[in-house]
Amino acid sequence: MQKGQHIGKLVVHIPDNDTDPDIAHNSINVSTTKRPLRLDPSAAYLLAGGVGGLGRAVATYFVECGARHLIFLSRSATSSNTSKDFFIELEAQDCTISAIDGSVAILTDVQKAVALATESGKRLAGVLQLSMVLRDLPLMKMSHEDWRVAIEPKVDGSWNLHKALIELEGNDLDFFVMFSSALGNFGAAHQSK
What we know:
Layout: E1 44-48, H1 53-64, E2 69-74, H2 81-91, E3 96-101, H3 107-119, E4 124-129, H4 144-166, E5 175-178, H5 182-186
Parallel strand pairs: 1-2, 1-4, 2-3, 4-5
Helix pairs in contact: 3-4
């Protein structure tokens, strides 16, 4: 799943009976959403990154929830056959796709992506910060350049999104979600990001 090639669902089964000896010592609280997510079909949604496995799953979910205008900012937005096929699939579901080859770590690329929404007359209603660069090295063996390249999308990219959105007239986002991974907190011996 780390490489973004897995598409599908993961299912976690939580037994109805909390007296099961395997879970009796754990307190599991599950809350359900009372109403389903409804996204504004007249608004635009920006996905920074979003052409990997997780981004494709979220974009598909957004379309299922009513989104009809998605903007993708990614280094491989128009050059990857996987991305192109995915965009065709979304367009077949009555969704308009705008794809920009660029980096979230470059402010002008982010400004161009944000401007696409306003130039089309759409309100930018939501932003998903999904970008990342993976360096498959232990931290102690990374060069400074490897480390910088790995953190740019998360740190500089998030800051650039913030700056571009502050400049946005009206600035009435419904949400701004930043994705990360547990490995970012706990680490793995050979993966730093």
